[in-house]
Amino acid sequence: MIFGCDVDSAALRAAIKETREDACRLFVSSPEAISANGPYDLIFAMSVFCQYPGSKKVSNLGSLYPFSLFESLACNLIENVTDSGLLCIMNCNYLVRDLPGMDRFSFLRSPLIRGNGFIDKFARNGDRLTTSFGNRSCYSHRQEAEGITDDDLLDCIFKKSPTGEKAGQIITESRFLRMEAPAGLRQLRILPEAGEPLDKAIAEQRVAMVRSNEVYAAENGESGQWLRQEWAKSTLDGGIIKFGGWWLPVAPEAAGELSAVQSAQSAELTRYIAKPRSLRGRLMQLLKR
């Protein structure tokens, strides 16, 4: 059974239309309702524990969103995760490690996880720790005060240890990824990186990320191509860490190799949107009046 909750009535109405009653139970979110339906093997709190965009404008978050409120709500989730269950907290204004009860959890990491969100970070007393920049997929953080680590900007999935078992471990999860290179490949091309140059971020004292994309093919001329991707990230002390590359079998067009027909379609689209009769063209004409 999947459980979903929200404090927004419009979000709940939309969810009702997209879910089946026999597979999903929806309810209005509150600590009491969460506990009544728990415990849970997996809890997602995505952009729940933050005040965005309000947090972008303050030097101290305390009056807008006190740590005590975050603590009471987040600890409710900690208590409702089953032993060996997972807690995912993404885009959180405060540091998850400051929560009581997190000493029961280990840290689940993967080459796919390069950060825990674009939300600015704050200390327990509300003081600003980082300022974030960029968009939601390729964001960066600049440190504004002491009291934050690279792990605080990375970890977002935590595994609860059963009573009596050791917690605080780093668990690397890669069983769903192909980490070893297929045999007999040669590099065809290097595709544009996703993110920003890390040397620029280091010069500006920011923690940023970039994903490399390299296309390979079989040496013997067999059909099929492979895409190797890997995230790298600058650190608070100006270093660079890499998360390990993974391999994906891809079609030529997914590897940046468009067919003649696809290329012609892209050119046709470019010509079309430049014409006055297109929606963009008509809007531009209206703006010029």
Describe this structure in words.
With 289 residues, this protein is of the alpha+beta class. It has three domains: 39-172, no CATH class; 185-257, no CATH class; 258-289, no CATH class. It contains six helices and 15 strands. It has helices spanning 9-18, 31-37, 67-79, 198-203, 260-273, 279-288; strands at residues 2-6, 24-28, 40-46, 81-90, 105-109, 130-134, 139-143, 157-160, 170-172, 185-195, 206-207, 209-218, 225-234, 240-242, 246-250. A hairpin with a 5-residue loop joins strand 13 (225-234) and strand 14 (240-242). The mean pLDDT is 91.
Sequence-ordered SSE layout with sheet pairings:
Blueprint: E1 2-6, H1 9-18, E2 24-28, H2 31-37, E3 40-46, H3 67-79, E4 81-90, E5 105-109, E6 130-134, E7 139-143, E8 157-160, E9 170-172, E10 185-195, H4 198-203, E11 206-207, E12 209-218, E13 225-234, E14 240-242, E15 246-250, H5 260-273, H6 279-288
